[in-house]
Amino acid sequence: MQRDTAAAELAEARALLDTMTERVREGDPDVTPEQLATQRELIAFAELRVEAAQRKETRVRAEERVTLAGAAREAAEQLLTGPGTDELTAATRDAVDALARLAGLVNERNERIAEIGSTLVQLDTDLKAAGETTGAWGTRKFGVWGNRDGVTVDGIGRAEALPMGRLSVAVTVAGLGEDNPGRAAQEQHMKSFNGLRHTTVQHLIDTFPALRDAVAPST
């Protein structure tokens, strides 16, 4: 760099003046006043060169800052007004619409489970009143039992009401993927995040096995 070169030349000139001055003190007759004066002038000139290099470096840095700021502003403007904004908005709307559709299907299913469960609970009560059964789940004799939270069909399986909150979280974490941005920088956060993923997704799989491929394809 010019500044380093100028500084080296100044240091060299000062060192030479120190040497010449010491030679005079030691009585060397070969060093003349003119030589000392010339060397001091060289030092003054070298100092000016150092200052000039510093000013140039300052100007260059200022120009670089202006250039960087301009590029950042242009990028920010593009972020605010470019096509990416429309794509993000559209993707957000799609996600909201998809979640609304999912919520509708889940609510419809949960209502159906609650309706069937209520019927089974009432039937169980009637069976007990009629003295046909005394234990829990008297409707087992018909191969079906349950309540508003879930119903079971003997030999086929159980249908439980799906908690929409848990399902929406599972959909979110599944969509983000395993290697989402910020993992390395937010290790503790990601530990909690992945813990939530495991707990929530596993609960949903246990509740509704058919969701396994949708929310945990790698499971």
Describe this protein's structure.
This protein has helices at 2-25, 33-81, 83-129, 164-176, 187-207, 212-215; strands at residues 144-147, 150-153, 157-160. It is mainly alpha-helical and 219 residues long. The protein has three domains: 2-81, no CATH class; 86-153, no CATH class; 162-219. A three-stranded antiparallel β-sheet has the order 1-2-3. Helix 1 (2-25) runs antiparallel to helix 2 (33-81) and helix 4 crosses helix 5 (187-207).
Q: Can you summarize this structure?
A:
With 219 residues, the chain is mainly alpha-helical. The protein is 72% helix and 5% strand. The chain folds into three domains: 2-81, no CATH class; 86-153, no CATH class; 162-219.
Any idea what the shape is? rod-shaped
Strand arrangement, largest sheet?
Answer: 1-2-3
Give the tally of structural domains: 3
Total helical elements: 6
| Rg of Cα set | 41 Å
Low-pLDDT residue intervals, each spanning 5 or more residues:
182-190
Helix proportion range: over 70%
Residue-averaged pLDDT: 81
Order of helices and strands: HHHEEEHHH
The termini sit apart by: 58 Å
Largest sheet: 3 strands, antiparallel
Structure summary, number of beta strands:
3
User: Hey, roughly how much beta strand do the residues contain?
Assistant: 5-15%
